[in-house]
Cyanate lyase C-terminal domain-containing protein (Aegilops tauschii subsp. strangulata), 116 residues
Amino acid sequence: MEDGAARAAAVQKLMAAKAKSGKSFSDIGAETGLTNVYVAQLLRRQAQLKPDTAASLRAAIPALSEELVDLMMQPPFRSYNPEMVHEPAIYRLNEAIMHFGESIKAIINEDFGDGI
């Protein structure tokens, strides 16, 4: 299991590999058939890389080492940083959820049923 320091070090390496590619999250997503948000989650260790996606991600980001790809295939280290809600974009996203949340929930319940 990763601790916070190990996760931060891994994310730094993953983001350096992305930077070396010169590609945006959207560019990588288009090349791999993934969404840009999922690519960002993978590179920030917030989602688990599936084996059938590894080859296309390595092709899109050649600087990804085998060690980093193996790490990305492990269950992610998810955490909550209370300081993050003070970041302006995150604050506004939370505000939007609070404003539209009940309506979004009603649509989800109507389309998919009650529950998560």
Notes: The chain has two domains: 4-73, 82-112. Residues 88-112 form the longest helix (25 residues).
